[in-house]
């Protein structure tokens, strides 16, 4: 098996659930492929029982859509698929139709690094029904994971209070692509660097690292190991001090640090990877300070997550840099975001948009119909509410009322004249990219700047205050009427 040499340069058109193709075929047989439709991608609950989510993955989606083309191999594979009767699954004319298909959708999306909330569209896809449908699985695959990891990274970096968080997850990540996507999303969410060198190369993320216990163990003594490392890497000395005994390790690090100073070099710091991280980091700080190494950092690692970082802060641990792997890149306590992609409207024969609704026994699962956008309102620079509205019914002047999509008794009147912005930005028009893809550093800065515009009550780790998101009144009425109509059918 070959691994795609350059990410997304080969065709990934078949990276989809088979049912998308069976539906595509049936749409084609029913003459519905070109009927215009709108789908929204959204999630229903912030991950990690948190109060916010960080959107990530759009850049992959852009790549995916630009390369959305069935190549000859894909078509041959589909041509050879057989049904139960042994007959070809798909008619040749349909395979040719797929071969000729050219991506032509309009896509609007929330930019990466934006703080987002349940029920608001992260991506809106408008175009021929068949294309919108075929994009469902890859879009969910990409956005669910990267959004989840960016959110986890944001929670961890918030807990770290602006101190550096190094992402160390490659060895524990969900395979090769999972690791790469996780490193990218972790950087967007707030990590300062990755240990994953390939992610560094592919995405332009800073790469950093210390050394492992094996390095120390390969020498007769720890001191020799530190000395040899300092010889080889005089500008990158973070000594791992806990291989045998952390106190002795610190004494050895200080000895070698002094030798480095004699050569005009500075020891960057020490890393502690076991034991009581509060106790040993405080011991390290005291010893380093007494020896005059006030600038030396104390790096901690070992199964950390946002809750342990928070706890270590409360314990007044002297940790300045956090190395975090497994629990970050696997989103350990919630392994999937659960975003969905739903048909919101379809154009009828007369060219009128018909809003679409999926009724469910569970109110939370009823989608929001119609051609929507989202407006975020700010009061004195602080985000105060998001309004989901029908794009052709902008209700600015009146000072709209927003109504909670799940509990209609929760309502909020938006004051006239508040600062606001539209969250869905144009990405593709008629299949052509109209969006300038930002650099990854710009995206990371957006996350930070966005988070700063939210009250800290929404950002706390446990039982956060719920940020208000609601339907503009006419959208609420549309939804309610459609639900009532569907229930009477
Ligand atoms: N002061 C502390 N408060 C809360 N949790 C801590 C503190 N110090 C360490 N921890 C966490 O407790 C767990 C300790 O795990 P464990 O007992 O397996 O570590 P151990 O001492 O590391 O050694 P090893 O990794 O070598 O097995 C880790 O998740 C670590 O991050
Ligand atoms: O704990 P994580 O958040 O995943 O961070 C990465 C871990 O990976 C390395 O050790 P590894 O786990 O390979 O071995 P060790 O725990 O036995 O040192 C490193 O020393 C960290 O402990
Ligand atoms: O550079 C490090 O210290 C590192 C890298 C990966 C995993 N654990 C530690």
UniProtKB/TrEMBL annotation:
The keyword Glycosyltransferase applies. Residues 374-479 form the Nicotinate phosphoribosyltransferase C-terminal domain. GO terms for cellular component: cytosol. Residues 14-144 form the Nicotinate phosphoribosyltransferase N-terminal domain. Pathway: Cofactor biosynthesis; NAD(+) biosynthesis; nicotinate D-ribonucleotide from nicotinate: step 1/1. It catalyses: 5-phospho-alpha-D-ribose 1-diphosphate + nicotinate + ATP + H2O = nicotinate beta-D-ribonucleotide + ADP + phosphate + diphosphate. Transiently phosphorylated on a His residue during the reaction cycle. Phosphorylation strongly increases the affinity for substrates and increases the rate of nicotinate D-ribonucleotide production. Dephosphorylation regenerates the low-affinity form of the enzyme, leading to product release. GO terms for biological process: NAD+ biosynthetic process via the salvage pathway. Keywords: Glycosyltransferase, Ligase, Phosphoprotein, Pyridine nucleotide biosynthesis, Transferase. Residues 167-347 form the Nicotinate/nicotinamide phosphoribosyltransferase domain. SUPFAM superfamilies: Nicotinate/Quinolinate PRTase C-terminal domain-like, Nicotinate/Quinolinate PRTase N-terminal domain-like. Its EC number is 6.3.4.21. One of its GO terms (molecular function) is nicotinate phosphoribosyltransferase activity. Coiled coil: none annotated. The keyword Glycosyltransferase applies. Catalyzes the first step in the biosynthesis of NAD from nicotinic acid, the ATP-dependent synthesis of beta-nicotinate D-ribonucleotide from nicotinate and 5-phospho-D-ribose 1-phosphate. Belongs to the NAPRTase family. PANTHER family: NICOTINATE PHOSPHORIBOSYLTRANSFERASE. This is Nicotinate phosphoribosyltransferase. It comes from Anditalea andensis.
């Amino acid at each position: 098996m070959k691994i795609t040499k350059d990410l997304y340069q080969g065709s990934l058109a078949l990276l989809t659930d088979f049912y998308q193709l069976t539906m595509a075929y049936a749409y084609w047989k029913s003459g519905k492929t070109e009927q215009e439709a709108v789908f929204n991608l959204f999630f229903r609950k912030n991950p990690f029982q948190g109060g916010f989510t960080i959107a990530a993955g759009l850049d992959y989606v852009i790549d995916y859509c630009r390369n959305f083309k069935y190549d000859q191999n894909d078509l041959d594979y589909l041509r050879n698929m057989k049904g139960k009767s042994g007959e070809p699954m798909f008619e040749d004319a349909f395979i040719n139709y797929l071969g000729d298909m050219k991506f032509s959708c309009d896509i609007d999306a929330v930019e990466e690094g934006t703080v987002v909330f349940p029920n608001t569209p992260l991506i809106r896809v408008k175009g021929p029904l068949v294309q919108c449908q075929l994009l469902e699985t890859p879009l969910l695959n990409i956005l669910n994971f990267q959004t989840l990891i960016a959110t986890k990274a944001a929670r961890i970096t918030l807990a770290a209070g602006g101190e550096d968080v190094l992402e160390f997850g490659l060895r524990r990540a969900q395979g090769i692509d999972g690791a790469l996507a996780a490193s990218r999303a972790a950087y967007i969410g707030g990590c300062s660097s990755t240990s994953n060198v390939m992610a560094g190369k592919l995405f332009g993320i800073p790469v950093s690292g210390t050394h492992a216990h094996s390095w120390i163990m390969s020498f007769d003594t720890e001191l020799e190991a530190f000395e040899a490392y300092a010889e080889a890497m005089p500008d990158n000395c973070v000594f791992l001090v806990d291989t045998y005994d952390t106190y002795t390790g610190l004494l050895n690090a200080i000895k070698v640090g002094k030798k480095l100073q004699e050569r005009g070099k500075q020891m960057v710091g020490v890393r502690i990877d076991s034991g009581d991280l509060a106790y040993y980091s405080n011991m390290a700080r005291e010893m380093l300070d007494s020896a005059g190494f006030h600038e030396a950092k104390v790096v901690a690692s070992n199964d950390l997550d946002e809750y342990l970082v928070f706890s270590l802060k409360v314990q007044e641990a002297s940790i300045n840099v956090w190395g975090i792997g497994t629990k970050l890149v696997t989103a350990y306590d919630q392994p999937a975001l659960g975003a969905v992609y739903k048909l919101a409207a379809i154009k009828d024969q007369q060219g009128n948009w018909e809003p679409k609704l999926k009724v469910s026994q569970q109110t939370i699962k009823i989608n929001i119909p119609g051609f929507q956008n989202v407006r975020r309102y700010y009061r004195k620079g602080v985000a105060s509410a998001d309004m989901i509205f029908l794009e052709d019914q902008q209700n600015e002047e009146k000072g709209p009322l927003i109504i909670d999509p799940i509990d209609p008794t929760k309502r909020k009147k938006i004051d006239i004249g508040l600062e606001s912005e539209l969250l869905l930005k144009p990405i593709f028009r008629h299949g052509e990219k109209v969006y300038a893809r930002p650099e990854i550093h710009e995206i990371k800065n957006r996350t930070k700047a966005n988070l700063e515009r939210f009250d800290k009550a929404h950002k706390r780790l446990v039982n956060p205050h719920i940020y208000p998101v609601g339907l503009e009144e006419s959208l609420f009425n549309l939804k309610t009427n459609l639900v009532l109509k569907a229930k009477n059918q």
